[in-house]
Amino acid sequence: MRVLVATLMLCAGMAEATPDHIDGSQTQSSDPVAVDESSTTSATRSSDAPATITDERRQQVVMVSPRPKLRPARFRKITLGRERMRKRGAVCDDWTILGQTVKSFTGKYRGCGISDPVRVRMISDIELSQKSLMDCRTAVVLKTWIENTAKPAFADMGGGLKKLHVVGHYSCRTRNNLASTRISEHGKGRAIDIAIFQLVDGTLISVQDGWNAAYARGALRKLHSGACGLFGTVLGPDSDQFHRDHFHFDTARHRSTPYCR
Ligand SMILES: [Zn+2]
Predict the structure, then answer these.
(1) Residues in domain Extensin-like C-terminal (predicted)?
(2) For site-directed labelling of 117, which of 46, 98, 169, 220 has its Cα 20 to 30 A away?
(3) For residue 32, what pLDDT is reported?
């Protein structure tokens, strides 16, 4: 008799503790377990046996499927992730481009300046040696080149690419600083000059020393040809005396076909 009372008390406790009443307030439970309390099986079920679901209750469970209620939670997670990324310094609506947004500005010469500029410090985990001022279109093109060309070009060298040594970004000046030429794409925030590629193991590969050197010429030529088309203008050591020691990439908007030398 004492055993029977104890068993009944245990069952009553289980009935209270188990979320067997599936109603609207409990539908957020991600994995509801239905227990058939009307059945006598609960009295005979051992404590670790799985709960049984009758056809009627299974229908109820299906009707209150928690799936639609999970979506807002997932969206909340995405929103939180975006907030975290903004705090991390993501710009240009791209989580892999890190830096700061800057107010639009004009320069000392007509034609200079950038609207909605960004000061970029890292792209796709590759550091820029100096925070580089540019517009978002240029930043996104640079990111594409880094991911599709620069990283693969150095994948088998020195542990891979780590840092770009930038020797030019925004600068309100004429092309190659020559008098009576047009405003450089640098003056519009559409250009970047890169002189050295630093690898994870510390190796420095400069455009000037590596362009015709056996250890680097293959990689450097891949960087140059991979930029052509992505950027409107691509200049390297074979172009002219002004680019012997760096690559100039810009997103010139006036060209119908890319200019790559
Ligand atoms: Zn340049």
Answers:
(1) 107-261
(2) 220
(3) 36
Cα(170) to centroid(ligand 1), Å: 9
Q: Which residues have CB less than 5 Å away from ligand 1 (the ion)?
A: 168, 191, 193, 248
User: What's the gap in Å between 249 CA and the centre of ligand 1?
Assistant: 7
Closest by CA to 136, choosing from 169, 177, 101, is 101
User: Which pTM does this prediction carry?
Assistant: 0.69
Structure-model confidence comparison of residues 3 and 138, the more confident one = 138
Give the distance (Å) from ligand 1 centre to CA of residue 71: 48
Separation between Cα atoms, residue 194 and residue 60, nearest integer Å: 65
Q: How much distance in Å is there from the Cα of 159 to the middle of ligand 1? A: 28
Do the Cβ atoms of 221 and 179 come closer than 8 Å? no
Cα separation values, 93 from 5, 96, 252, Å: 65, 9, 22
Q: Ligand 1: distance of its center to the CA of 112 in Å? A: 15
